[in-house]
Amino acid sequence: MQPTRTEGPDYYHKVVDCQWACPAHTPVPEYIRLIADGRYDDAYMINWKSNVFPGVLGRTCDRPCEPACRRGRVEEEPVAICRLKRVAADNKSDVGPLMPPVAAKRNGKRVALVGAGPASLTVARDLAPLGYELVLFDGEPRSGGMIRSQIPRFRLPEEVIDEEVGYVTRLGGVELRLGQRIESLKGLLSEGFDAVFVGSGAPRGRDLDIPGRKEAAANVHVGIDWLSSVSFGHIEKIGRRVIVLGGGNTAMDCCRTSRRLGGQEVKVVVRSGFEEMKASPWEKEDAIHEDIPILNFRVPKAFTHENGRLTGVTFEIVRAEFDDKGRRSLVPSGEPDEHHECDDVLVAVGQENAFPWIERDIGLEFDRWDMPEVNPVTFESTRKGVFFGGDAAFGPKNIIWAVAHGHDAAVSIHRHCMGEDVHDRPPPGFSLVSQKMGIHEWSYDNDISLDLRHRVPMLDKAEALKNVRVEVELGFDSRLGFAEAQRCLNCDVQTVFADNLCIECDACVDICPVDCITFTEDGEEADLRARLKAPAVNLDQDLLVSGALATGRVMVKDEDVCLHCGLCAERCPTGAWDMQRFTLEMTHADQMGGAA
């Protein structure tokens, strides 16, 4: 097997599993160390640079980093990465002076941003310091997009949204045109903007066209529209008996909001099994904690009604059946239909994009799903100078994906406005710096302890259900935040091996607590994986393979199980092993310069 190439950023980036899994590639271990050190302002600004909305995401992120967390391979649960982000946001001081200064001069370029949600705000955050004039359009009276309209206040207080959206809109050069919905892209293009970014989200909730829908329309509500009406104060109550249809996070928000608006008997009914539901596990747990039953394998057949009033929903009972390729289908179980009485139904069975305002004769092509054709690297459409991001680009995901799209689109918009090729994208920068402070001392805490994940304190359930605007999660205080931060294994402090210094004494093999280091004869990767001291079965994780050593053997380390404890480097008599901190600098437009 060829020696592992570690020259570029990707190899060591991938070893930092949480950062690799994060769409915005937030340097998670770095900000967690700062939290443990009580440096909350610095931790917040690292997050702000990467994911723009630390306080928002510290409460609402879908947490793709946590399933990847190395601590989850040692214990049952990963580090509470998401909630530690909130610790930095809750405990910071005034970070206004740490924000980028207003550009000293404008660069003469104007960019229109359609939709004031997380994707557009991220583009604005990256382009404003470069002197752009940014015009942000949104049909709603307040900015924030789905952050404000679709996430209930008991999960995300309004003041957190106002604060973090305000950091962006106060950067200079950002003009807000709220309450101004764009009705024609052709008309917008005629206003002479140098580029247009569409971050309008996926604003249309799917409906259910089943018998009784029209007759019972007064009490059958589309979930995301209903949540938006609650957020903006247009709806303040709901019936005593509520059925929520759907198994995603929107359905969980709908059922929990219903409990706070007068719903006493609220149930969620899902066509799939419990494990197949799209809702995050913690969202389901929170709903169950609030006494909301989840009924699975039930498909709605009809809304029942009497004299124009909804009376309930009839469901067909189904079961899962798998073919010889493991593909699942839902088939009738043969059991009798069920009828569940209710006063209101919330339909949360998915979201879809709607682009009636984009003309089809302006050189912007759409695919068979009526989605714009968007380059997944540059985020440019087939119409030069028109870019998409967030849910508007590739369909509904979550806030952190919208932020990642915004960063990448901003790079493209900047290059486009500078007359450069949008495909020519500077690679991320990186560095490796030794953490050695002495013969047996490191600049980071490398003690490996078996600490269980700390539970986030919650408001008493009886109190939480009284008010739709009272936050239910109280967050970690500084003491619990420190304890949870100490669970991080510092995966960004890499084990770096120098072939020319190794004397093959096997001291590192003897001391490694997880048997991840092996000195052996070379071979093909599949052969090597099977011959290691502990077989390397996770093919998604790389092997660190040295060049040929003095005896002809190679050193092989399985990155999957390494704890980054540094014992190999402490024990090594020649310094062949070193612990070096890996820092990744993602390419953002505001770091590129190039004002016209």
Automatic annotation (TrEMBL):
Listed EC numbers: 1.3.1.1
Domain 4Fe-4S ferredoxin-type as annotated: residue spans: 493-522, 552-582
Keywords, ordered alphabetically: Flavoprotein, FMN, Iron, Iron-sulfur, Metal-binding, Oxidoreductase
Pfam families: Fer4_20 (PF14691), Fer4_7 (PF12838), Pyr_redox_2 (PF07992)
Reactions catalysed, as given in the entry: 5,6-dihydrothymine + NAD(+) = thymine + NADH + H(+); 5,6-dihydrouracil + NAD(+) = uracil + NADH + H(+)
Cited SUPFAM superfamilies: 4Fe-4S ferredoxins (SSF54862), alpha-helical ferredoxin (SSF46548), Nucleotide-binding domain (SSF51971)
EC top class, as a word: oxidoreductase
Biological function: Involved in pyrimidine base degradation. Catalyzes physiologically the reduction of uracil to 5,6-dihydrouracil (DHU) by using NADH as a specific cosubstrate. It also catalyzes the reverse reaction and the reduction of thymine to 5,6-dihydrothymine (DHT).
InterPro entries documented for this protein: 4Fe4S_Fe-S-bd, 4Fe4S_Fe_S_CS, DPD_II, FAD/NAD-bd_sf, FAD/NAD-binding_dom, Helical_ferredxn
Protein name in UniProt: dihydrouracil dehydrogenase (NAD(+))
Assembly with partners or alone: Heterotetramer of 2 PreA and 2 PreT subunits.
One Gene Ontology molecular-function label: dihydropyrimidine dehydrogenase (NAD+) activity
